[in-house]
Amino acid sequence: MKHILTLFFLILYSFASIAQENTVSGIVTDENDEPLPGVNIMIVGTSSGTTTGIDGNYKLSVDANAVLKFSFIGYKTISENVNGRTSINVKMVSDFESLSEVVVIGYGTQKKSVSSAAMSSADVDAMEKISVPNVGKSMQGLTNGVTVSGASGQAGSAPTILIRGIGTNGNNSPLVVIDGLQADVGILNSLSPNDIESIQILKDAASTAIYGTRGANGVIVVSTKNGKDGRTEFSYNGSAFVQEPWRTPELLNADQYVDIINEKFENANRTPVAGFPARGTATQIDTDWMDVIFQPTTLHNHNMSLSKGSEKGSFFTSISYVSQEGIIAPEKSYNNRLTIRVNSQTEVNEYLTFGQSLSVVQTESESIPENNAFGTPIADALVYDPLTPVYDNNAQFGFAQSPYVQKEYVNPLSRIFIANNQNSSKNLFGSAYLEVSPFEWLKFKSDFGVQYYNYTNDSYSPAYSLTPAFLQNSSQVGFGAGNGLQWQWENYATVTKDFGLNNIEAVLGTTMIEGNSYNYGGSGQDLPVEALTNESLRYITLTPDSSRRSFSNSPGKTALQSYFFRTLYNYNEKYLATAAFRYDGSTQFGPENKYALFSAYSAGWVISEEDFLDVPFIDFFKIRASYGSNGNDRISNYQYTSVINFLSTYQFGQSSNQTVYQGAVPINLPNPFVRWERSIQSDIGFDSRFFNGDLGIEFDYYNKITDGLLLVDQSVPIFAGNNAPFKNVGKVRNSGIEFKIDYAKEVGELFLAATLNGSTLKNEVLEVDGADGIFNGYTWPVRNTIITRMEKGEPLFYFRGYESSGVFESQADVIRHINRSGDQLQPDAKPGDLRFEDTNGDGVIDVNDYTNIGKPWADFTFGLNLTAEYKNFDLNLLIAGQTGNQIFRTFERQDVPYNNYTTEWLDRWSEDNPTGSYPRVTAGAQNPVANNNSPSSFYVEDADFLRVKNLQIGYSVPKSILEKAKMTKARIFVSVDNLLTLTGYSGFDPEIGVINYNVASSNLDQGFYPQTRNFGAGLQLTF
Questions:
Q1: Which of 175, 304, 528, 935 is paired with 960 by a 20 to 30 Å CA distance?
Q2: Mean pLDDT of 629-640
Q3: Nearest-angstrom CA–CA distance, 882 and 879
Q4: What are phi and psi of 408, to 5 degrees?
């Protein structure tokens, strides 16, 4: 009986076990409902599992009460209880900045979790949401340690990108590496964000030293897209936007203008010119010149791509077209760009792989002058009076000219009319590589790349006589052209080997780069009158006299030869170390310093892998430190030698009968000891993740000293007989902290994510050649006064001028402003004048009291990216801001007797408004000490801002509908750029920053072309 009962229970147990076994199947997709191949699916507590196929499907036999774990690199791990189900579909959620992801570094890739260098990844998905299809502009606010500025509303405007601040008085542009090919930062303007797979920012010496003389300003590593395994996709991304200025200064209307000009002359005891309206006179014309020059325009962006991937290779091709009009004179301010890209990779056999990346770009553009207080339509509009009409049939070209405002100013539409400047360029950028892997642990790669460009520029200006001070007696025509070819050949070997728990990767290689350029141009005068309306007549050969034509050309050649080595080491992915070296030789530098060695070292410790740090909510915690050096070779060619100028003239003979001969002369004295600028940088930081990967925090402290800045040698006396040479005599320090905090959480059908990044910067000049320790920057033409300066102990190119402590409200205030001896400091001042401080304490106010009145470099910059998804709807919000820097208003021209003013001047001092915040207005020359036009802190304002850079709302068509249409994605969206800006700055735009890397004039508002606010919609389709 006992044995029968035992047998009975065994049979029951067998039936129960069989009943509990079932087959589970389903599909695994990403956030966009696209299938994910290769997802690892494990039965928890066993070694059994499977992976998804190329269509994202899987099938697995499991126990009815089993738990399945779904994991995939770059996505959060998901666990699912089977609970007797036979179908389980899983939607994987991206692990924001997952530390297990593989990042692209110089000459290879590396798991981020074992990296001991300071690097940041740009959110490419967020970049694609920005309407202006410019990779540089769209990086703003998305990456810590990166500052993007100087991007105006001009069509095709290129931004200035700075990594960890300003390190030199010269060119601070970072190196850009696209699919292994090194290039200048301008190449980013030709990329389509839709073609980019990833962007890594290399910031410290450990990550950039392998680029030697080109890495001091940081490196931007871009990888473009390729086909994905097992997929064939066709995608279209298109959008259309309406552009308008986000804000323009508000100018005085006609009545207000008449009042202020009469008051201006009354304060100077003078009378306006005959015919100028008296106060209270009714004005028939009230022109708002800002409304005249600015107008809504359009921006179109279209991108189509085809990709295919298989086990043996991949292919990606795309075509992009961008058409952008300027918000000023769109007929003469536009940028049209066509980009074609072809990428491919083929596995020839198990040992040999061939790949290539190629882009061809054609650009047609025209632009207007900008950010200059002299000679731009914006400068004209700021100064021009509202009493002048826009048009006058009796005036030249039909544009009315002011009888009051003269000097260099004219009707802004007439300036636009006479300017004709058309540009065309073609660029080819590509590389091909051959990779040989004779063993699993060894790879040889030979990569050859070329960059070729050619450009043309056609310019024409008719003869004109708009005012007595603004005329040109002859029509002018010009043509410029050029081409350049740079080739790069790199050969390197990579060894990857594991010795137990020791993991080593070493790279050893060489680089050769050679560039040749050729630029030429010509000009002529006195074209036929018909050329005014007939563009086909605007050619130099149509000018009548060959003696009035000119021609010039300028060749250039550079070369770089390098050897590099790097080793990456980790012990059980817990203890980390990196060492990198590069030996560079460059034709940019003198024979005494042609070669140099750069090196860097870093170490890291993944503390979370230690047994003593067994904290449930800490998933990952790594500390790291680095130290090393790299260089900056971005200087003009031939600075180490004397370049000969063949345009010099010499006069011989008696003064009454001289003969002029053409001659040649060296431009400057040589300095064979010129070398590159060298940056030495230390960094300490940590990377961490908490709460099952939901929260991530990255932090860095850096200290970067750039030594050997190239300055004109001020110690060379004038009797040397020529201009002084360049010399390595400056030193600058940048230091600060960087952080990034990201959080993502899925609650039911709602997915929320936020990424906050921020950077601080302290910039200080440590050394400048000469006893005075100064190097002058920008000279304000209005007073011929230097208002930016490089000086030891101060921020680079800080603002200088009088420190103003307000406005004298009464004569008693003027009398009370005294020195220690009781003497008046500004005895010639009047009530309403600016009060200047005796900063050097010598009892006299003069130019020796000029002091630091502001700086262009922000103490803190930040960005916040918010994402929300609910069912088929998604929302993205990008906010960026800065604080701690200033802008110098230099567009105000009170020295022009009849200039207009912004409405802030309504709160000026007067007898009826003695507490006004703005000084009195007055015409004519004044004592410099009482001069309200002198450079002073009155013209300096805080540049703090908080700006909603982008708001986008999208809707994705449900999968059930897509399947019927044989599509994998269909999304429509509406988007707004620069929706809201909070700032106290009264000028055009608080984001002036550095324009074209000209650091000496940073944050000088000379009539900045304001950024645009863009409203539009778009469509994304994938088949």
A1: 304
A2: 82
A3: 11
A4: -90, 10
